[in-house]
Specification:
heterodimer, A: mainly alpha, Topoisomerase I, Chain A, domain 4, 3 domains, globular, B: alpha+beta, Alpha-Beta Plaits, 4 domains, 4-stranded antiparallel β-sheet, 24 helices, about 60% helix
């Protein structure tokens, strides 16, 4: 049986070297402080995202630039599976593939959103469609076929060979009935995280503990995100939360979240709950009225940002600890995702001329 | 070159009205490493009459730097590198007002924005057409393609053929263009125009409605109409992409039109920015300004003449030798070392004289190896030259092959060629690319060393083409040599140990010189690498050599040698009591024993560590012998193509693998065995503000 050192030695060295090339805070600051969008974009010239600058120069299109950034990010992360296949064991290979599957699911969800817009809501998608990442298919499913599917039955037929086929089959009728894509997105996330957790169960005990911890924070962030979206977009936000929330969060399980949400002051309760468990003082409003849904949504969005920060804190902790674990892979993924997210946020912020302090708050 | 350059400290006091002239002249000279006078002189630190400027210079500096960066971005957008600044920019540059510069910028930025807007619109058209194109078959055979011929991806497409009134064609085209669809006019008969429309099925409803509004009548068209439409789509896409390309190319042209103006603005702003940087380092009184900092002693006269000239004699210059401050620092440092009391950091004047390493340009790669480890403390030996010699000797001994050395030289030249080619690029090099110039120069040096040792060993790509000038390394390793200075692998090992002893002794010698110059007598005597440690090492080396020459049978019985080990070891016991002036004798004993253990084991390990030089040299030769054997096995009846391939690949592998190993191990030996004996990496790099500053 191979030792963790021999399994992770190469991967650890390779990924740490890559982590060191992640765009530093100083560059992000320069991008924020740039006087023009043109300047912001060109700061990326000396980074891994230089092809995105080229894309901007050739098209003048922010969305094309974003598309290129996402493409670069996904291709870079997919290279990790090449390294795991060379030097690790089947459990790690399978787990890494599962982690990478999230990008396919993100692409699929984007395609499903466009399909929903077009087929269910009858809106034009022509302005958005070109900016869909087409580089990969999801389990033999092309993005084109999803977007162009005429009906939900065709969509079900298209996905019948995918591992998540039953999820689509069960959730789509609800999507059509409720005229909301929310049930399908929740079902796909639930399927993904359950599969990811069962894949993590095959790892060694040390790896499993680290993976469960990091996945737990992701689940917390997703639960809060759902709550935020419910509050922001849906009027029936209070009902049936527990059914939608994912189990396995590091900080709060669905039961506790449900209890906090059913109170008169959900945002305050949640902020207190997470704040106490994360050791951070709550910044939620002291007085919260039912009518202040905007305020509640802002508080919850702040909580979401807080959880992202917690994930990064955990990543740094993992990177500072024993080096030969799955933690380095998960930390690399989290840091790279954060990098792309921050770059795209800054680009959008500068493009739409958002004030610096507001932009900083979004990072 | 041997020591860091001698520095002098200057305090220049002049009237406020000469502030600009002074900062400009200091920038032109580019020699002053600025320091805040209050950190140098503890008396002045409490003087309320002396203060930093009100932040105006810093604010102006920030504003100008922001505009300068905008100019830089525009140049970058145009694909032009950052301009260089010459001395002439200081006096004769076109004066550029910041607001004027901003106006130039804004005008250009507006034009660039306009182009970007056009690019965006064009891209949306391209996107729509590409959406259709990706579902159609390739160009080949399209000519005779009809509707039925489109199968690949055709599931998403809707192809309609028919006619519309000729006068409605333009209107139809305007509507259709808003969808991912292509309209092709085939021909005209009477007042009807025959068209093919290829669109996406998902837009069927909208397109059908548009066609209905335009009195479209569905009709079957001749075979090949659809193929023609695909060609038309391809042509249209090509045209749009060409237009997009020309827009993208127009931006650099636009910038190029204003390039000289932009470069001038950039230079002027940069000079102003640097001047404000200098002024922000001044301290001031009510009517005077004070500039203080370090300069190389050799420049004293030049600086004095220049400053007196620009201030028309209204300047007071006070010069101090670095040693005046250095003494103070050592005194404070010793106090801190020996005192048990806590001394707040704020009360200790932080006087650090910057170190300037003055080596010829040719030795820059080795200087980088030194500074990568640390900046030598002021007044100590700059080991760059010695590192160059030691590094190259070690590399040569490990990689002694003239052929392989030649390959390294060629690789170095290729790297330098690439660097020169890239010099005009607007995008700064990143990652490994930033190290290529230095690595290339290092490869040239290492290649040269390998060529020299290769000739000494008579090794050319693993073959003995010419007789060796020193000894036949390959022959020794293969066991063929029975005469000469080096006959066996043990002789090679012995050689490298002697080499190690030389390097370590050199390190000790440098350390003693540094400590004596710094008047750190206690460390000179009692440190592990001090005189006592050195005597123990020297005696140990002689004892070991005699023991080895007796065939590891008997230790030498010389009482002098014995006393050279025992007496310094006993004297070392005094270190703790003398240093701490008190404490527990048991602790002294413990510390003494640990110190002795460290000296004996440390020096032994350091010396034996040099055997790796022999190890890697032997590995280099052995690998080449192995590849020759493999080649021989592949071609038992003479040299064939397989043998050539094996030898080429074998040589390549050895060059890469051994080159890397030898480079790393040479560095390791320098850092851990040589530097650990003498290097004081506590220096601060001499960084004057000059026009060359990036």
């Amino acid at each position: 049986m191979s030792s963790s050192v021999s399994i992770y030695a190469f991967l650890n060295a390779k990924l740490r070297a890559r982590i060191s090339t992640i765009i530093p805070e100083e560059t992000i600051r320069q991008m924020i402080e740039a006087r023009s969008f043109e300047e912001t974009v060109h700061i990326l010239n000396s980074s891994i995202y230089a092809p995105a600058v080229k894309a901007y120069e050739q098209t003048g299109d922010l969305l094309m630039t974003e598309l290129e950034i996402e493409h670069i990010q996904q291709s870079t992360l997919r290279e990790t599976s090449r390294y795991t296949q060379q030097f690790t064991n089947p459990a790690i290979i399978s787990f890494t593939s599962m982690v990478l599957l999230r990008f396919d699911l993100v692409n699929l969800k984007n395609a499903l959103r466009l399909w929903y817009e077009r087929a269910i809501r009858g809106c034009s998608i022509e302005e958005k469609l070109p900016y869909l990442l087409r580089s990969t298919g999801v389990q033999g499913l092309s993005v084109e076929s999803v977007v162009n599917a005429v009906s939900s039955d065709e969509l079900i037929a298209l996905t019948m060979n995918a591992a998540f086929a039953p999820i689509i089959e069960n959730a789509l009728p609800l999507v059509v009935k409720e005229r909301s894509l929310f049930p399908l997105e929740i079902a796909l996330d639930r399927w993904y995280y359950e599969t990811l957790k069962s894949s993590a169960a095959n790892l060694s005990s040390r790896d499993r503990a680290i993976a469960e911890r990091l996945i737990g924070i992701e689940i917390d962030a997703i639960n809060v995100n759902w709550i935020v979206r419910r509050h922001a977009f849906y009027t029936d936000g209070e009902k049936d939360h527990e059914a939608t929330l994912l189990a396995g969060g590091l900080i709060a399980n669905p039961g506790i979240l449900e209890k906090a949400l059913s109170s008169n002051q959900p945002a305050r309760q949640l902020a207190q709950l997470f704040g106490e468990r994360m050791g951070i003082p709550s910044e939620a409003p002291k007085e919260e009225k039912e009518s202040h849904t905007g305020q509640t949504a802002r508080s919850l969005a702040f909580l979401e940002t807080l959880l992202q920060q917690q994930l990064l804190y955990e990543c740094r902790r993992v990177l500072g600890g024993y080096p030969f674990t799955i933690g380095v892979v998960l930390a690399y993924f989290a840091l790279k995702q954060q990098e792309a997210r921050r770059v795209i946020t800054v680009l959008n912020g500068k493009y739409y001329e958002i004030a610096t302090h507001r932009l900083e708050a979004l990072l | 070159m041997i020591f860091t350059k001698r520095m002098v400290y200057l305090t220049a006091v002049t009237l406020q009205e000469y502030s600009r002239q002074l900062s400009r002249e200091l920038l032109r000279l580019g020699l002053m490493h600025f320091v805040d006078i209050r950190t140098i002189d503890p008396v002045l630190s409490g003087d309320s009459a002396i203060k930093v400027p009100k932040g105006e210079s810093a604010a102006r500096h920030t504003a100008i730097a922001a505009v300068r960066r905008r100019v830089e971005v525009l140049l970058n957008v145009g694909g032009f590198p950052r301009p260089s600044i010459g001395e002439d920019q200081l006096g004769h540059g076109i004066p550029v007002d910041k607001d004027d510069a901003v106006r130039i910028m804004e005008n250009l930025e507006k034009q660039v924005d306009k182009i970007r807007g056009s690019q965006r619109n064009l891209q949306q058209q391209i996107n729509r057409l590409e959406d259709v194109r990706r579902h159609l078959p390739s160009n080949e055979g399209n000519r005779f393609l009809d509707t039925g011929g489109i199968t690949q991806g055709g599931a998403f497409l809707q192809i309609q053929t028919g006619s519309i009134p000729a006068d409605r064609l333009e209107s139809l085209e305007q509507k259709i263009i808003q969808y991912p669809a292509v309209l092709n006019r085939i021909n005209e008969q009477g007042n009807r125009c025959f068209v093919v429309i290829i669109g996406m099925k998902r837009n069927k409803h909208d397109i059908d409605q548009i066609l209905k509004d335009h009195d479209f009548s569905s009709e079957k068209l001749p075979a090949g109409s659809t193929g023609e439409t695909i060609n038309e789509l391809d042509n249209k896409l090509s045209r749009l992409k060409e237009e997009q390309r020309s827009y993208a190319e127009f931006v650099p042209k636009l910038v190029d039109r204003s390039r000289s103006e932009l470069e001038q603005v950039w230079r002027t702003l940069r000079v102003q920015e640097l001047q404000y940087t200098i002024e922000s380092r001044f301290t001031e009184t009510k009517r005077a300004i004070v500039a203080s900092g370090w300069l190389p002693a050799t420049t004293r006269k030049t600086v004095q003449t220049a400053l007196v000239h620009v201030t028309e004699g209204h300047i007071s210059l006070e010069w101090h030798e670095a040693v005046e401050f250095q003494g103070k620092k050592i005194k404070n440092a010793e106090k801190r070392e020996t005192s048990e009391d806590h001394v707040p950091d704020g009360q200790i004047p932080l006087i650090t004289v910057p170190s300037q390493l003055a080596n010829p340009r040719i030795l820059k790669p080795f200087q980088l190896l030194v500074t990568n480890y640390g900046i030598p403390a002021y007044g100590t030996v700059d080991p760059t030259t010695l590192v160059a010699l030691a590094y190259l000797a070690m590399f040569g001994l490990m990689f002694g092959d003239a052929g392989h050395g030649l390959v390294l030289i060629l690789a170095g030249l290729a790297g330098l060629g690439w660097t020169r080619k890239r010099a005009g690029s607007p995008t700064p090099a990143s990652g490994l690319a930033t190290a290529i110039p230095t690595l290339s120069r290092l490869a040239l040096w290492c290649g040269g060393a390998a060529v020299v040792t290769g000739i000494l060993f008579g090794s050319y790509f693993g073959m003995s083409l010419l007789p060796p000038l020193w000894f036949n390394y390959h022959g020794v390793v293969a066991g063929h040599i029975e005469a000469g200075p080096i006959k066996s692998i043990f002789d090679i090992l012995r050689l490298t140990i002697f080499f190690g002893i030389t390097v370590i002794s050199l390190g000790l010698g440098i350390n003693w010189l540094n400590l004596a110059r710094q008047k750190r007598w206690f460390s000179l005597f009692f440190d592990k690498t001090g005189l006592l440690g050195g005597i123990i090492y020297g005696a140990g080396v002689i004892i070991s050599a005699r023991f080895a020459s007796s065939g590891f049978q008997t230790l030498p019985d010389s009482p002098i040698l014995l006393s050279l080990v025992v007496v310094p070891a006993l004297v070392l016991f005094l270190k703790s009591p003398l240093k701490k002036r008190g404490g527990n004798p048991l602790w002294w004993l413990m510390e003494w024993m640990i110190e002795l253990l460290e000296i004996f084991s440390g020096y032994l390990a350091n010396t034996l560590s040099f055997m790796r030089v022999a190890g890697l040299g032997i590995a280099h030769v052995t690998l080449m012998i192995a590849f020759f054997q493999i080649a021989k096995m592949a071609s038992p009846e003479g040299f064939n193509i397989w043998a050539v391939i094996i030898m080429v690949l074998g040589n390549a592998l050895v060059i890469v693998l051994e080159g890397l190993s030898a480079g790393i191990q040479s560095l390791r030996l320098n850092y851990y065995e040589f530097f650990s004996k003498h290097f004081q990496p506590s220096g601060v790099e001499y960084k004057p503000i000059s026009l060359e500053e990036i």
